[in-house]
TrEMBL record:
UniProt entry keywords in alphabetical sequence: Transferase
Domain N-acetyltransferase: 9-171
Keyword set includes Ribosomal protein: no
Coiled coil, from the record: none
SUPFAM superfamilies: Acyl-CoA N-acyltransferases (Nat) (SSF55729)
GO molecular function: acyltransferase activity, transferring groups other than amino-acyl groups
Endpoints of the signal sequence: none
Claim: Transferase is one of the keywords in the record: yes
Domain of life: Bacteria
Protein name: N-acetyltransferase
Length: 176
């Protein structure tokens, strides 16, 4: 796997040493709504996942990368390609920055830029899509800044905090 490096951050493959970080992300209830998680994950399951993380995207249909500051090896977030469909040249994309203090300083934008370029240039994808809750203004702004266009709304799609919320579907088509 190529290390994807930007000005502030780089993306790298997950390592066994990422167990505690992935465990904390997957079990952080405050971000379950963006990761579509319903239940906690055990360390055992995450350890198994990390042991199989070396699988090729063509096998796993997913690519999850750690987001790291250029001057560190510890992950500060995760970015994923999921539902990888090589026949139709498309995949879903999602991102989470774990630490609040790392948000809003361009880390997410740089990570998204690096992965979009990788998906289009190296995986030869034709399109990427993102499912974003209508109330997630930060993610909506991030993805639209990169040219993702809203193509639909799934009405009352997610049940959060006792209420139904819409989820918007965004798409970016590679025009090159």
């Amino acid at each position: 796997m190529i290390t994807l490096k930007g000005n502030k951050i780089y993306l790298r493959a997950l390592e066994p040493e990422d167990l505690d970080f992935v465990y904390s992300v997957e079990n952080n209830e405050s971000i379950w709504e963006v990761s579509n998680t319903q239940t906690p994950y055990s360390r055992f399951l995450i350890k198994q996942y990390l042991e199989n993380a070396q699988q090729d995207i063509y096998e796993a249909k997913q690519l999850r990368l750690a987001i790291c500051n250029n001057d560190a090896t510890e992950a500060i977030g995760l970015i994923d390609l999921f539902d990888f469909d090589p026949r139709n040249h498309r995949a879903g994309i999602g991102i989470v920055i774990q630490d609040q203090k790392e948000r809003g300083n361009g880390v997410g934008a740089e990570a998204l830029d690096l992965l979009v370029k990788y998906a289009f240039q190296h995986l030869n994808l034709h399109q990427l899509y993102a499912n974003i809750g209508s109330n997630n203004k930060i993610s909506l702004k991030l993805f639209t800044t990169f040219g993702f266009q809203k193509i639909g709304v799934k009405k009352e799609w997610n049940f959060l905090h006792g209420e139904y919320h819409d989820e918007e579907l965004y798409q970016l088509i590679n025009t090159k």
